Amino acid sequence: xxxxxxxxxxxxxxxxxxxxxxxxxxxxxxxxxxxxxxxxxxxxxxxx
Length: 48
What we know:
single chain, 48 residues, mainly alpha, elongated, DUF1328, transmembrane helix, membrane
């Protein structure tokens, strides 16, 4: 899951560099949600 977040972050950076603000915003939002999900699942796995 962390790999997907990094992939979407890279896509957002490339899209922002090329001037595609909409694609960059959506990709960054997806990356943020994936990182949040990863952190929640990692915390749960440490607690259980």
